[in-house]
Amino acid sequence: GKGSLLVQNPTNEPTPAEKEVPDNEKPKLENGESTLLVECDGGLYFDNDAGILAYLKNIRLTEDRFKLTCSKELKVFLDKKQDAGEANPDPGKSDTDNTKKDNEEKKNLSSFGDLKQIIATGDVKVTRVDDQGRPFVAMSETASYDAKTGEIILSGGRPRLQQSAKQYLQAQEDGQWIRVLKSGKLVTSAGKWKMEAIVKNKNP
After folding, report:
1. Pairing state between β 177-180 and 160-164
2. CA 25 to CA 63: how far, in whole Å?
């Protein structure tokens, strides 16, 4: 009985770890930066050598500009930072020792720089709001995003782009893909497609 009292919280107050950080104590974002939250049910792994961070099972990604969910896997590919031209960090040790030390220190996320690519698999759904405040939904079995070009490719199953119940584009057979360019232009694979849109008549 006494032992259990040591871990009880009679006031029901949140512990320090549970308390949210006040807004005025959170780090301020620089221009061009945004917050990114990723949650998953199956754990994650990081490949130091390849710079690949993978989240497993029922992934929920929330970013200031969009939300993404997928059921299987979300892989994030990162570019390695360029450290050419650095001086010997410890003159008292040989180059071999310093190289070994550098390699050990660099085997973490801080040794990687810009985002290169994101690939999501399994019932992928991306939701965002365009510049005019209209919702936009993309669905497919696989989705890839190239951070360098801003290009998105939806493939697998029957990819679908949707703005409302009456405005959408969807493949009518399996194995099709949709390529969305950064400019907003899109291209589809050859095959059967269905598109519905709302048009305004000049003389209602």
Report:
1. unpaired
2. 20
